[in-house]
């Protein structure tokens, strides 16, 4: 505004230069006084404006520094909260009490096992058909024994399939836990110091290993239990066969 006003004032002086000496003093000095007032007001306004702009700049800088500090603080708090949440969720997932849902497998197993139990009882009841003289021969015993072998083999396969189904579920959980450990480890080292991350991982790894050992032990115990059961069942039928075989031989020798 001052730059635009100055040329106008200069031209006004030039055009009025011849007449200024002829005017009364209160008129001839009015323009310089007005210019002086404008100059003083300009300088005063400029100084106030500079002070205001400087104050705004200082205030903005303080706000930026405060915002940066607050942002850093909130970011640190978020990282700490995220760190604790990740560790807590990982502990829940890896906890040995976080059991795998085997309910559908167990339900189907129970239904089929009842059928096998009925079939084994039927084999026992078929012994009543051994009656001399027509049905007390070695071929009759051999036919019955073949049915026993067929049924016990089928039952072994059934138990093997049952344990394999459990193992598939366990393998899925182990794979999930392995992936979880890998992801958690990466996240923790990004969110916290190496010391804090190492401390958290030292708590998670034992849970990870303990869960693996638990399910390995579960499969081993189930395998031993059913191996013992199937072997005992086989030996029970075998003892019946061994008991009947000499009786049949003696009977056949007697009637011949």
Spell out the blueprint of helices and strands.
Layout: H1 2-20, H2 25-28, H3 30-94, H4 103-125, H5 138-191, H6 194-255
Helix-strand pattern, N to C? HHHHHH
* SS-derived structural category: mainly alpha
Number of helices: 6
Nearest-integer average pLDDT: 88
The rounded Rg comes to 50 Å
What can be said about the biggest beta sheet?
none
Oligomeric form: single chain
Distance between the termini: 143 Å
Give the uncertain stretches in residue-range form: none
Proportion in β-strands: under 5%
Let me know the number of strands: 0
Shape: rod-shaped
Helix content: over 70%
Structure description:
- This protein is mainly α.
- The protein has helices spanning 2-20, 25-28, 30-94, 103-125, 138-191, 194-255.
- Helix 3 (30-94) runs antiparallel to helix 5 and helix 3 (30-94) packs parallel to helix 6 (194-255).
Question: What structural keywords apply?
Answer:
about 260 residues; mainly alpha
Give a brief outline of the structure.
This protein is mostly helical and 256 residues long. The protein has helices at residues 2-20, 25-28, 30-94, 103-125, 138-191, 194-255. Helix 3 (30-94) runs parallel beside helix 6, helix 4 (103-125) runs antiparallel to helix 5 and helix 5 (138-191) runs antiparallel to helix 6 (194-255).
């Amino acid at each position: 505004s001052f730059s635009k006003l100055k040329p106008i004032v200069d031209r006004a002086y030039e055009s009025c230069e011849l007449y200024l000496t002829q005017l009364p003093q209160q008129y001839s000095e009015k323009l310089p006084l007005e210019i002086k007032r404008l100059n003083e007001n300009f300088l005063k306004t400029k100084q106030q404006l500079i002070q205001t702009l400087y104050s705004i700049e200082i205030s903005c800088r303080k706000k930026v520094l405060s915002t940066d500090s607050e942002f850093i603080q909130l970011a640190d708090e978020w990282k700490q909260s995220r760190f604790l949440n990740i560790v807590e969720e990982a502990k829940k997932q890896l906890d040995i009490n976080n059991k795998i849902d085997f309910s559908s497998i167990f339900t189907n197993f129970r239904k089929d096992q009842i059928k096998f139990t009925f079939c084994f009882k039927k084999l026992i009841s078929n012994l009543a058909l051994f009656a001399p003289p027509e049905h007390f021969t070695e071929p009759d015993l051999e036919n019955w024994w073949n049915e026993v072998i067929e049924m016990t083999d089928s039952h072994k396969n059934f138990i093997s399939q049952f344990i394999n189904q459990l193992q598939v579920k366990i393998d899925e959980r182990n794979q999930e836990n392995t992936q979880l450990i890998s992801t958690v480890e990466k996240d923790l080292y990004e969110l916290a110091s190496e010391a804090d991350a190492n401390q958290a991982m030292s708590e998670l790894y034992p849970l990870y290993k303990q869960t693996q050992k638990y399910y390995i032990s579960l499969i081993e115990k189930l395998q031993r239990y059913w191996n013992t059961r199937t072997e005992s069942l086989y030996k029970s039928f075998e003892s019946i066969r061994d008991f009947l075989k000499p009786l049949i031989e003696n009977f056949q020798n007697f009637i011949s």
